[in-house]
Amino acid sequence: YHEHLCIEDTGEPSLLRFMCAELTRGYFLEHNEAKYMERREKVYTCMRVPKELEKLMLFGFFLCLDAFLYVFTLLPLRTLLALLRLLTVPCCGLGSSRFLQPAQVCDLLKGLIMVLCCSMMHYIDYAMMYHLIRGQSIIKLYIIYNMLEVADRLFSSFGQDILDALYWTATEPKSRKRAHIGVIPHFIMAVFYVFLHAILIMVQASTLNVAFNSHNKSLLTIMMSNNFVEIKGSVFKKFEKNNLFQMSNSDIKERFTNYALLLIVCLRNMEQFSWNPDHLWVLLPDAFMVVTSEVTVDIVKHAFITKFNDITADVYREYKASLAFELVSSRQQNAYTDYSDSVARRMGFIPLPLAVLMSAYVRQKLIFSHFFFYFSSLTISLCISPSSFLSLAPLYLNHSFTAPPTLTEDTAWDHTHLGFFSPPVPFMQITVKCK
């Protein structure tokens, strides 16, 4: 009866005729097959992004860890070798145009900066800073923490420029015309920068420690919710592959710094409770919440950025291969920069301030563990760097290249604002020369 009404085209429109047409109306998805296949691929891309992103994050995290441990392990040994050469070359009367090689001069400057800044950190009272921050209101602490994050990016962006200016001023060929203010003023600026950046990280750690020790955990909740603001400020912007690479490097640096701050907070709390293992189980849920929120925000942010900008998940493999290529290049004989400096320029992570803060804390609170920390760091660093990264880096490159890649001569580092460091050349523009 209803079919008869729907087929019959006589009579005026009625509600029954309209309902019958709507209930029996059909459509064919295959008429727009390309559109639906594209939508399905976007869903698959969003599902693949977390896996590929975390692979990149893990590789970048260990790059930062290796650069951080390098300050405690190989840098002191290289500094001692530079001092030994500086003392023995004049006595032996070896004919040379310069006593030290450029790399040895840079190592010596880094060692002096570490010693001076650690000595200056001895006069900073962490307990007084903690109680001063704890006496502030929650809203004020939230504003302070946001200001510290912005200041950390500004310091990271300008700090590497200060250090690079010092290294070049100290190693610049003397035959050139003097166009700088001298090594000593550059050295004073570098020491001043590293010291201020270490103080900044200490204030960040103190604020996070106050959030952990607050009774209602409201400050910790507000600080974690601040991570989700990144989604609003990022996903609706236009991103190219090069811009996404910059953001990925910044996220790697941010995640490593947050883990380091969590480590400092846990060590401070455990030291206050006489290293009672039971108190560790009290800290772990809060630390897990912070880590989970950070990972969740990164995954959601990158998933929707790739979706809105039509970027495939395979781009993260290219980013990882680019980092591996830089790692391999920094180990060559004709490398133009130190490995730790290349990580700083790429990701915005400068290990010296964090190393100064960690050294000051270890020296003040963990006298016995200081030696254990040094030798364990030496073991971990030596295991991670040659055996792990140098063996994995060629594998990553082989998945992206059919022949060893070489960069063009116009490759140059370009710094951008707020700690986002752009690569020498977008990874897709790297010239591959087949032998």
Automatic annotation (TrEMBL):
Q: Which GO terms describe its biological process?
A: cartilage development; ossification; positive regulation of cilium assembly
Keywords, comma-separated and alphabetical: Chondrogenesis, Membrane, Osteogenesis, Transmembrane, Transmembrane helix
Is Transmembrane helix tagged as a keyword? yes
One GO CC term on file? ciliary basal body
* Topology in the lipid bilayer: Multi-pass membrane protein
Quote the subcellular location field of this record: Membrane
Segments passing through the bilayer: 56-75, 112-133, 183-203
The UniProt family comment states: Belongs to the TAPT1 family.
Official protein name in the record: Transmembrane anterior posterior transformation 1a
| Species assigned in the record | Electrophorus electricus (Electric eel)
Q: Print the organism lineage.
A: Eukaryota, Metazoa, Chordata, Craniata, Vertebrata
The gene is tapt1a
